[in-house]
Amino acid sequence: MTTVFILNGPNLNLLGTREPEIYGVDTLASIEKQCAAKAKALNLEIDFRQTNIEGELVNWIHEARGKAAGIVINAGAYTHTSVALHDALKAVALPTVEVHLSNVYKRESFRHHSYISPAAHGVICGFGAMSYELALEGISNVLNATRKG
Ligand code: CA2
Question: Of 7, 16, 35, 123, whose CB is crowded by the most CB atoms within 10 A?
Fold first, then answer.
């Protein structure tokens, strides 16, 4: 079975408790359930994690090499600040989809720059919890194309 790591960064554990107008009403647990159902339909296994610690995300990206075929990552605010996450993703060179619940381009200008995007195959943002399902569909396509190629 092909495994995809779904990595979530800082404050995403608070989903569903505040700012529903920006992030929707789903909790991270309900997003994990939706991802599990989507993964099953795509014949993928997921390893879904969240941390508020930048270095832990770096370690999980390293761990993905050898354990996962691809990465879906919502790095939260570290998206806009972390050269360390950029370097880790470049180092492991696994197919990666960057995901955001909100449309970051409709928001403050500091959210318009991403250190993740240059290391990612693609980016999905603005669809709430559905962004994760779309990201899984995207990475499934990339992995299938790589296998055929
Ligand atoms: O839209 C996204 O998914 C973000 O990655 C979410 C991050 C934000 O810093 C990025 O610019 C875009 C923030 C996640 C914080 O989530 C909260 C949820 C409920 C209450 C407070 C924060």
Answer: 7
